[in-house]
Amino acid sequence: MVRTRGRAWEGLQESAVSQPMTANAKEAVAFLHRPEIGRWLLKTSGLPVASGRTTPPGWRTYKLCLYQDLVLDVARSLEHPQWLLYRLEEPDFEPVPFPSSDPEVQVVKALAVRSLYAVGAEAGQVTVMAASSHRAKVVRVEPDWPAQKADAYMQRAREWWRERMSKQPQELNKMGADPEFSLRRATGEMALASDFLKINGTVGCDTTRYREDLALHQHPVAELRPAPTEDPDELFLHIYEALRLAGKKIPHKDVEWLAGGMPFSGYPIGGHIHFGGMTPTFSLRRKLDAYLALPLVLIEDPGCIERRHRYGFLGDVREKSYGFEYRTLPSWLVHPVVARGVLHLAKLVMMSHAELKATPHLQLPLVKAYYRGDKETLEPYVKQIREELRELPGYALSRIHLEQYFDLLLRGETWLCDFDLRSAWNLL
After folding, report:
1. How far is Cα 87 from Cα 129, in angstroms, rounded to an integer?
2. Contacts with 235 (C-beta within 8 Å, 6 or more apart), sequence order
3. Highest taxon of the source (predicted)?
4. What pLDDT, on the 0 to 100 scale, is given for residue 211?
5. With left for phi above 0 and alpha for psi between -120 and 50, is residue 277 left, alpha or beta?
């Protein structure tokens, strides 16, 4: 095996348009040389982790060599007889063609990529075992590629990176958002958004299936879809206009609108932000985590911690034809100061990502604090990055809104997610 660092990584910055390739940080390599830390990071991030080294009967072992989202190689263990309860040696592996239409292989790939990100690495080998597309667990993550294939893998990674970077201008050209909110009747029960809204439109229903006890046409969560723009103030105005439109469609004063993380058990809501013209590299995702997701913890409600069991994990993105969607944040519609601050901060991070230095993903106490909602641990970190952000040339353009936002974050209060957000937005 060979570490994915050193000579193979020389000259990486020449292979990208404006986002350079990145190698494994020495801290991440050190984490993975202590298996208990690697397993802790995986579990903390909400990933299913295998409890032992032996693959149970009926399960298959996969080994995936990765560079970020790129699958360089997939191998799968050969089937053993069901009666063989204990394997006395490492199983034989066969190559798996990739890309693959096999649902199990697709799930294994997604789990491997998320695992690599969760442990703070950029490249390595992830071992996953699976019994079906619904049953898969991570066994381990190693910061190494097989030595005999490392040079070939590096060449493929460079070529993939050049091609991937060329698909976007790597300059932010638009921002969008689709923040969600829930509805509560005077009885305290959840009202279905689909009772008032259609699926499509500027104000509609999120169609995610959360619970099987709902009919196919029943959708509990409302979603705003404001027109995208490159100006965070204009996007904020579009959100305000969308909320006013929602008021016309849901005119009932006794039906409250709730934001935050999970106003109703089992129904998480989010504040996704869309970025046009950019590629969601691991580095860029980590900047969004470091400067957007971690600071927001200071005012989050307990429902946001519950949401992270399935949603809201660090680095959660969906790549799109126009760029990507960052999905980690809860619904920041709670208050207009929060909404405007998040949008301005998102723009600043995207415009200045190459200059930002914070690496909380390599500091175990900060990773733990994010997933546990530990505000006390995160407060000094937030003060530190606030000072860093103030030194950026682009900060002056958003100074008023960012100062209000960080003042609110550091006030020691929790956002009022249990109160009707229309009051904060002056819509009642």
Report:
1. 15
2. 175, 176, 177, 226, 228, 229, 343
3. Bacteria
4. 57
5. left
**Distance, first Cα to last Cα, the chain:** 64
Torsional sign, CA 281, 282, 285, 291? negative
Q: For residue 232, give the 3-state DSSP assignment.
A: helix
pLDDT digits (tens, 9 = 90+) for 213-248: 555 678 899 999 999 999 999 999 999 999 999 999
Which of 5-9, 209-213, 362-366 is predicted with the least confidence, judged by mean pLDDT?
5-9
The string of DSSP codes covering 12-67 is GGGGSSSS---PPPHHHHHHHTSHHHHHHHHHHTT--B-SSSSPPTT-EEEEEEEE
Question: For residue 55, which amino acid is it?
Answer: T
Three-state secondary-structure class, residue 182: strand
| Half-sphere CA count of 148, side-chain side, radius 13 A | 0
CA 220: distance to chain centroid?
23
Question: Which among 123, 126, 135, 117 is positioned nearest to 41, based on CA atoms?
Answer: 117
State the virtual CA torsion across 371, 373, 378, 382 in degrees, nearest 10.
Answer: 100
Q: What is the pTM of this model?
A: 0.92
Residues 6+ apart with CB under 8 A from 125: 1, 63, 64, 65, 66, 141, 142, 144, 145, 146
Q: CA–CA separation, 283 vs 349, rounded Å?
A: 12
Token reading at 421: 């957000």
Residues 312, 330: Cα–Cα separation, whole Å: 7
Query: How far is Cα 324 from Cα 81, in angstroms, rounded to an integer?
Result: 44
Please give the structure tokens belonging to residue 102. 């096999």
Taken in order of first residue, the domains within the chain and their CATH numbers are 2-166 (3.30.470.20), 174-424 (3.30.590.20)
